[in-house]
Every structure is written in structure tokens, then in C-alpha cells.
Design goal:
about 425 residues, mainly alpha, 2 domains, two-stranded antiparallel sheet, 13 helices, about 70% helix
Length: about 425
């Protein structure tokens, strides 16, 4: 099922609001009064809304399989929670939540109990919740429904930007936006106070012996700059393409292009993976190998699954298929390659990254932003042209003639023979 922008937006704001209500209730139980647990100032927990949309898009094909839908929701939601926790910690230099006091936790950001809860909630959302929410939305007059969505979008964007400026200590950039953001925060607090008061009264009558807990923060952590992250992406994209090419040669006996781009041996999937794993696991580089292995295996599997669905939706083609391998999930990931992701994370963080870090520092000191800027422009243009070539490759397979200048240029420079050579595994769906 293909969802429209308005449908996805409705799901996003609905799940964000109801998650905020749930967080308000939990906070009331723990600390007696309201504490805004979300990133936003308004009555939204955007992370939940984002996760709901991600699950809706990427796990729709598992809707009929109860077990895999639960496990898929559990894995994706847990990965999102961990990524979000790491990113927010880098921005604010503290943990926004901490499960260190819970059994079977990992890094304080995720734990088995909540992962199972996310799996259940994701299952209920994809299987039943989406239908109920969209049913209510479609019952509204079209103009009313769209007006509601655009109104919520305007409030949500302003809220997010204002909160982001505050988090990044850039209040002076847009003072009016921050002023509006503070007004929304005060309104939200008044609303939440009423909700919390009602909940507290109910709990006080039913459970007078409720224990109240406090939250903790952690010390400052390091962060990576943009230039360093870009070079990590570049190195990862190049190394990933080389590794996959050699792997295909060893396992299949043939030399096969594994590049994601039309120019050069670059694998975007590997590049993004290396950049992300470095940013997120940089502070964990001194931890034991098994810690990094399991993080890499779990997050690598979730990342590969999302990339598979995303590229299929965007380009209409499947770039890899593990259906013939045991312990696979929809042909998109399999257990063996998840272990490979774990091994790659250990090898990179423990062995290669320290050397790559020193090399990047030397490059930046010698060339400044000159070489980085040139390569950045080249990669951006390379990705842009590759997307156009793949889109035209797909429309050309449907028998659609070239109408626009860019379509004619793609036909001239990237015909089917060349595209099949660059993307030999691209299977049309």
C-alpha cells in the first residue's frame, strides 16, 4: 500500500501526540509532576511519530506475519531509539533517558523490556492503529483534513526549529521563533499540568504507595566535525565497494561492479554505515570487542533492511536479495551478513579508525577545506546524476519515452547496457 503525504503526516502527528500523553502519564507516576520528555516544546514526542511512520513504510509487507512484524518492529524501533539517544547526547552533551538501572540494558539507551514493548506497540500500530487513524482522517471533508495537516505541520516545524536552536545554543539567530516557542512551551505546560493533576489524583486514590524516581545525566562526550564525517563517508564508500567486489570474486568467481554511483567505486550504503557507526560508537572505542560486535550486528541489520526498502520504493528495483540464504528476512537481510556487520564494526572501530583518523587530520591540515570542498561537490553531483540515471533506467523499462532534457541526457550517457554493467544486481520489481 502506498501512503500519501497527508496520510503519513496524520500518522506522524497522531502518534506523536498520543506518545506525549503516555509520556506525561509515566512522568506523573515517577516524579509527581509533569516533565516534558520530548524534544519539542509542544505536546509532541516527535521520535514516536517518526518511528511510527518508519514502521508503516518499511514493515508494511510484514503486516500478515505476526511474528516477523513483532520482531521487525522491535528491531527497527530499538535501532531508532539508540540512534536518537546517541545523536541527542552529542547535541546536548547529556543523556535524555537512561536505562542503566534496568536489567538487560545496553549502553543505557536501550533495554530488552522496552524493546519488547516497542515491538508490541509497533505491531499494534501497523496491524490495527494505522487503519483506525486513517479511517478517522478520511471521514473528514478533504479540505478540512488537509487544513488540519498543514496547520499541524506549521506548528510542528516551528516547534522543532525553535527547540533545535535552543538545544544548539543559537537563541540569538531567530529570537521571534524562540519567543513563539516559549509561548507554546507555556501552553503545553499548562495543558500537561491539568493532565498530570488528573492522573496524580487517580493514582493517589488507587495506589498511594507509588515510588517516585529521579533521572540522571552523564558527563560530556566527544563529537566529530562535518569534515571528518565526510571523509569517513568517502573512505567507507571506497573501502566497502572494494570489499564487496573482492567478496563477489571469491564467492562467485566473477568480477562484478558493486558501486552505488555511476562514477567511481563508491558504495553509498557502506559510506553512510561507516560514518554513522563512527559518530555513534566513537565514545565506546575503549569498550570490549563483544560490545561493539553486537551493536554493529544489530544496527547493521536494521540499517541494511531500511536501505533495501528505501531503494526499492525510490527506484523500483531490488539491489540485493538474500532469499536463497538461510535465516533471511524478506530477502533483505540475513543472519550471516548481520554478523559480518558486527565484525566490520569491531575491525573498523578497534583497528582501522584510529589510523584513518590520523590520516584525515593530516589531509585537513595540509589542504584545509580545498580538497574536501572539491570532493564534496564531486560526490554531491555524482549522487545527483546517479539518482537521475536510476530513475530514468526504471521509467525506460516501462516504455516511457524521454520528454525532458535530463531524460534525453540520461538516455544518451547512461543507456541500458551501461546501467546493467554498473548495477548488475538491480532487479526490477
Amino acid at each position: 500500500m502506498n501512503y500519501t503525504f497527508y496520510e503519513l503526516a496524520m500518522l506522524f502527528f497522531t502518534y506523536s501526540f498520543f506518545a506525549w500523553l503516555a509520556e506525561t502519564a509515566v512522568a506523573t507516576v515517577k516524579v509527581r509532576n509533569f516533565r516534558n520528555r520530548g524534544f519539542a516544546s509542544g505536546p509532541f514526542c516527535f521520535l514516536y511519530g517518526f518511528t511510527g511512520v518508519i514502521l508503516t513504510i518499511f514493515l508494511q509487507e510484514l503486516k500478515g506475519d505476526v511474528l516477523f512484524l513483532f520482531l521487525g518492529s522491535m528491531a527497527v524501533a530499538t535501532a531508532v531509539e539508540w540512534f536518537a539517544g546517541k545523536i541527542l547526547e552529542r547535541m546536548k552533551q547529556k543523556k535524555w533517558w537512561d536505562y542503566s538501572d534496568k536489567r538487560w540494558n545496553f549502553d543505557g539507551y536501550i533495554c530488552l523490556q522496552y524493546s519488547a514493548l516497542w515491538g508490541l506497540l509497533g505491531f499494534l500500530a501497523v496491524r490495527y492503529g494505522n487503519g483506525i487513524i486513517l479511517g478517522v482522517y478520511h471521514s473528514l471533508p478533504d479540505i478540512v483534513g488537509k487544513a488540519v495537516i498543514w496547520g499541524l505541520t506549521a506548528v510542528g516545524v516551528a516547534d522543532f526549529m525553535g527547540s533545535l536552536l535552543f538545544i544548539c545554543h543559537m537563541e540569538e539567530k531567530l529570537p521571534r521563533l524562540l519567543g513563539w516557542n516559549h509561548k507554546l512551551q507555556r501552553w503545553t505546560f499548562r495543558f500537561a499540568t491539568k493532565v498530570s493533576g488528573h492522573i496524580e489524583k487517580r493514582i493517589g486514590r488507587s495506589y498511594p504507595a507509588v515510588l517516585w524516581e529521579k533521572e540522571e545525566t552523564v558527563k560530556d562526550q566527544e563529537r566529530c566535525g562535518f569534515a571528518q564525517v565526510f571523509w569517513l563517508f568517502l573512505i567507507g564508500a571506497l573501502a566497502g565497494d572494494i570489499v564487496e567486489t573482492i567478496f563477489c570474486r571469491v564467492t562467485s568467481g566473477i568480477w562484478m561492479s558493486r558501486s552505488s554511483l555511476v562514477w567511481g567505486p563508491f558504495s553509498v550504503v557502506w559510506g553512510l554505515a561507516i560514518a554513522l557507526v563512527t559518530v555513534l560508537l566513537y565514545k565506546d572505542r575503549d569498550k570490549q570487542e563483544h560490545h561493539i560486535f553486537w551493536v554493529g550486528a544489530f544496527l547493521g541489520g536494521a540499517y541494511e533492511y531500511i536501505c533495501s526498502v528505501f531503494t526499492e520504493i525510490l527506484f523500483g528495483k531490488v539491489f540485493w536479495d538474500y532469499s536463497a540464504m538461510p535465516f533471511n528476512l524478506g530477502g533483505r537481510i540475513n543472519l550471516l551478513y548481520c554478523f559480518f556487520w558486527g565484525i566490520a564494526a569491531v575491525v573498523w572501530i578497534k583497528g582501522i579508525y584510529p589510523k584513518a583518523e590520523r590520516l584525515i587530520d593530516i589531509i585537513l591540515k595540509k589542504t584545509g577545506w580545498v580538497l574536501t570542498g572539491i570532493l564534496l561537490v564531486f560526490m554531491a553531483f555524482n549522487i545527483f546524476v546517479s539518482v537521475l540515471a536510476l530513475v530514468r533506467y526504471d521509467t525506460r523499462a516501462d516504455g516511457k519515452a524521454a520528454v525532458y532534457r535530463w531524460e534525453q541526457a540520461m538516455d544518451e550517457h547512461f543507456d541500458d547496457v551501461k546501467m546493467e554493467r554498473i548495477y548488475p544486481n538491480a532487479i526490477r520489481q
